[in-house]
Amino acid sequence: MIKSFINRLDRLREIDSSNSLFGSKRWKYGFKTISETEIQNFEKVNSISIPKEFRSFILEIGFGTAENYGAPFNGELTFCNDDDDEFPISEGSIIIAEHGCGIASYLIVKGDYYGQVWVMLGDCSTKLESKDYFEWYSNWLDSAIEKLEATD
Hints:
Elements: H1 2-15, H2 24-27, E1 31-32, H3 36-46, H4 52-60, E2 63-64, E3 79-80, E4 93-100, E5 103-108, E6 117-120, E7 126-130, H5 133-150
Antiparallel strand pairs: 1-2, 3-4, 4-5, 5-6, 6-7
């Protein structure tokens, strides 16, 4: 699966050399690789376990380029939890994409929705985006490539 992502990212870079895709001027198809040691430290500090799909992605490709504004601007993994809320992201999640206007996508790393990707909308409601990180990222990549190829 990782090889497929690399091939599609290469295709996306090729057809978007001018960074016309929304958000690409910010992330410029860049990734920050995260080492196994960094991941293990992050897991230990936050008492979580990162889902295997996401783990392999950030180890082999990195963290950064994604839907809309992409990963948080500093390229760092950011753990979120709020025991006072009942939303799936509240039990424990990682922000994987910022969409603007307070909207963001989260990978759930703790609780009943572990491994799923949820979006928090501007009105603080949430909805399921994908069953796992690979599905979420694949959907975005395919959509972005399709959109850019249609404009050629």
